[in-house]
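Module 6 notes. Inverse folding takes a fixed backbone as the condition and produces residue identities as the prediction. Think of it as a translation problem where the source language is geometry and the target language is the twenty amino acids. Below is one complete input and output pair. Work through it position by position during the lab.
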């Protein structure tokens, strides 16, 4: 019996709240707080059981601390934006509450995708006896746990990791992003980095392309190598990795729009002067694009996200692929959301459940692959993200 406070009432916040509400034996009390309380109320109205809602500015530590002291939750699930990670962690320390998020802290003015700011909280959380779980979404999140599970059960030593994120869904818009447009576009336009022989190697954004055929007839897609934040923690926590890469599928229309928007400066994160006012181009673009939380009813098709790992077992090389396939419309029927928010929100709920049940509770700041993957993997099967694992005879994306 635990009380959880969820911060952020966007696409992911909606799914986490639905999933926590489905498990009253774990999440006996739920508070959903966000900048715009009407959005919290709209999510609350979709549920079968009552929850509390609140308005909070998550950039403001004092306001957050006051809310935490008033509500006294056992855990905060942060599904606001990466810009708020540190203020929410500060408030958790001030009020003595455990913390979980799904994306690393990002400064507003530079796209970094680094854990250094949050890892710097290690001693503070340890001394306070509090647990902070970082990156409990799908990628980062489930993909880190998949890697840990494969390393634990299938190999003596892992050498190569390819995380492949395919979204075979179609929302019918010429251009829309499946999660927060600002974060999505920052991620996709950032310089690519992958791990090669003990260091990160930089290449231009989207400069390496491959084709990948998903299992179970999901289809064949163009995938592009890009940097993704879990590469930083996974290469640190699995030092035997010689190569680690992240790939994501993109459609032609998405890429064409992104190129044009980039060329005209609409994806910029530096403020510009417009009629005496400061405007950040990417924030203005966000205001024009469809809200990701409204894509649910119109998105059809499936996601297929997983990890291919090469390594050694009993002196022999082998290749293992562990993946989840999720149907957008099935997600919509269950929680009124498309699969991108669903595949993020369910691992956030499961990570929270792990902490509240005491299975993943250890003072300090941890990336998700640092805990035992087994109970999380069991719950993925139970709560809507069943996975499959197969051995491959060969695997090569250097085409
Ligand atoms: P949305 O933009 O849909 O939702 C963000 C929510 O946070 C909105 O409700 C917004 O409020 C609220 N918010 C923003 N700023 C503040 C603030 N200062 N105070 C209080 N509330 C605030 O984003 P998503 O739901 O798509 O994504 C949520 C998080 O999940 C992001 O951090 C994203 O990076 C992460 N993510 C992680 C993935 C993974 O697999 N690990 C995949 C997808 C997303 P308002 O409605 O007023 O704007």
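Target side of the pair, the amino acids:
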């Amino acid at each position: 019996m635990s009380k959880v406070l969820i911060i952020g009432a966007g696409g992911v916040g909606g799914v986490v709240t639905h999933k926590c509400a489905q498990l009253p034996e774990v999440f006996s009390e739920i508070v959903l707080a966000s900048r715009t309380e009407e959005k919290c109320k709209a999510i609350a109205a979709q549920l079968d059981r009552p929850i509390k809602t609140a308005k909070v500015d998550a950039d403001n530590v004092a306001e957050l601390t006051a809310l935490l002291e008033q509500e006294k939750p056992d855990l905060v699930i942060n599904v606001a934006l990466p810009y708020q990670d540190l203020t929410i962690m500060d408030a958790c320390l001030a009020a003595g509450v455990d913390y979980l998020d799904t994306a690393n802290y990002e400064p507003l003015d530079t796209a970094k995708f680094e854990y250094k700011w949050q890892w710097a909280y290690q001693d503070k959380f340890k001394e306070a006896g509090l647990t902070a779980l970082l990156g409990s979404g799908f990628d980062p999140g489930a993909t880190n746990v998949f890697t840990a599970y494969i390393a634990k059960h299938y190999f003596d030593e892992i050498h190569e990791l390819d995380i492949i994120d395919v979204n075979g869904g179609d929302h019918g818009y010429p251009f829309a992003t499946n999660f927060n447009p600002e974060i999505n576009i920052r991620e996709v336009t950032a310089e690519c980095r992958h791990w090669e022989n003990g260091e990160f190697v930089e290449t231009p954004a989207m400069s390496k392309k491959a084709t990948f055929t998903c299992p179970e007839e999901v289809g064949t897609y163009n995938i592009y190598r890009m940097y993704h934040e879990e590469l930083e923690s996974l290469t640190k926590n699995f030092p035997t990795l010689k190569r680690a890469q992240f790939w994501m599928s993109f459609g032609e229309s998405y890429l064409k729009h992104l190129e044009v928007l980039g060329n005209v400066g609409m994806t910029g994160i530096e403020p510009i002067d417009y009629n005496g006012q400061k405007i950040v181009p990417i924030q203005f673009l966000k205001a024009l694009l469809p809200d990701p939380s409204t894509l649910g009813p119109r998105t059809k098709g499936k996601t297929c996200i997983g990890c291919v790992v090469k390594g050694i077992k009993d002196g022999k090389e082998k290749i293992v692929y562990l993946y989840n396939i999720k149907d957008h419309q099935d997600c919509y029927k269950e929680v009124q959301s498309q699969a991108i928010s669903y595949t993020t929100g369910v691992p956030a709920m499961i990570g929270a459940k792990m902490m509240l049940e005491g299975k993943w509770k250890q003072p300090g700041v941890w990336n998700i692959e640092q805990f035992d993957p087994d109970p999380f993997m069991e719950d993925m099967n139970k709560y809507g993200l069943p996975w499959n694992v197969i051995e491959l005879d060969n695997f090569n994306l250097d085409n």
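Reference fact for the lab report: The mean pLDDT is 96.
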